[in-house]
Amino acid sequence: VTGVDCHGDGYLKDDPFFEFRRGSVTDRNFLRSVFSETSPTHVIHLAYSMIPLHDRHMEYSIDVTGSMNTLVCSNESTSVRQIVLMSSASAYGAWPDNPLWIKEESPLMPKDYRYGIYKKKIEECYSRFQARKNLHVVILRMCTAIGPSYHKKGGVVSLLAGSPLLPRFDNTFCRLQFIHEYDLCALMDLVLHDDRISGRYNLAPDSYSSVDELAPGSIFMCIPLKAARAAAAVLWKLRLSSCMPAAMDLATYGIVIDPAKIMKRYGYTFRYS
Question: If 0-12 CB within 10 Å is exposed, 13-18 middle and 19+ buried, where does residue 104 land?
Answer without folding.
Answer: middle
